[in-house]
Amino acid sequence: MVMSIGVFDGVHVGHETILKMLIDMGRRKKAKTLVLTILYPMDYYRQNFDGLITSVTERISILQERIDMVETLDLIEVKDLDPRIFFKEWIERREVVGLVVGEDFRFGKDGEGDVNLLEKLCKDSNIELAVARDVKIDGRRVSSSVIRRLVREGKMEEAARFLGRPFRITGKVYRDTGLGHRIGFPTANIDRGHEFLVIPRFGVYSAKVTLPWGEEKVGVANIGTRPTIGGENVKYEVHILDFDGDLYGRFLKMDLIKFLRPEKKFRSLEELKEAISEDVKKVKEQVEEFLV
Questions:
Q1: Domain coverage including residue 98
Q2: For residue range 244-283, what is the model confidence (pLDDT) as tens digits?
Q3: Which tens digits make up the pLDDT trace of 122-134?
Q4: Is residue 246 included in any domain, yes or no?
Q5: CA-CA distance, 198 to 12, in Å (whole number)?
Q6: Each residue of 79-108: b (16+ CB within 10 Å) or e?
Q7: CATH number for the domain including 207?
Q8: CATH number, position 132
Q9: pTM over 0.85
């Protein structure tokens, strides 16, 4: 078996380099591939974490499309282990013949173990080690933390370049107040679940929506608290163009393509309606750019 260890949040283009190296190593050694994905990074347990790019379930699903086996590792269970003990219990005992990690890989208590120590341990255990170098775009290192920041800032086009695909929001559609229906722009409200996920900049976006049966549609998404009606909780809703159907209880995928405008408190519902009309007009002008 050949394996890789890491968080892999977002499964971005840097992770893709690691996965390709792992797959190539597996073919060369005629061995199964395994990714040991760490559930949450250490920052998840600190005050300054922006949230996961993808849910753990979605991350595993993306990895399973490429890798033979995916297992999870809870960082809390291993964070105080001596690096050599970690290596013995989580790598050596699995009879691994090859290992692929990123050059910033750290392991063991306080991140004491680095690639240099890993190289020595692998050599002593006759395990081939391959280290994936950082991927850079426009001189910036691709990392999950950078992507989280881009999403928080509403820079979806740049985030998509680092991810290798648009930033996606997924979840079940639930019944809300019905305001959209009343003003002529019905929306699907998406429940993202209870995980700590990164929240995009509040505002309006052009979006590509994948319906439960696989059909793709264009949408105008709104993320925010809906201040016009005195809302407080963050809502994720999308008006799907050229669609009239019941999606309650169904699973929806929504890719955020481009930030259109910040969230705003309007003086009346009529003013809100006029603004949404303009949003729809702008999105229709963008359709050929992203719906392929």
A1: 2-141
A2: 888 999 999 999 999 999 998 888 888 888 888 888 888 9
A3: 999 999 999 999 9
A4: yes
A5: 15
A6: eebebbebbeebbbeeebbbbbbbeebbbb
A7: 2.40.30.30
A8: 3.40.50.620
A9: yes
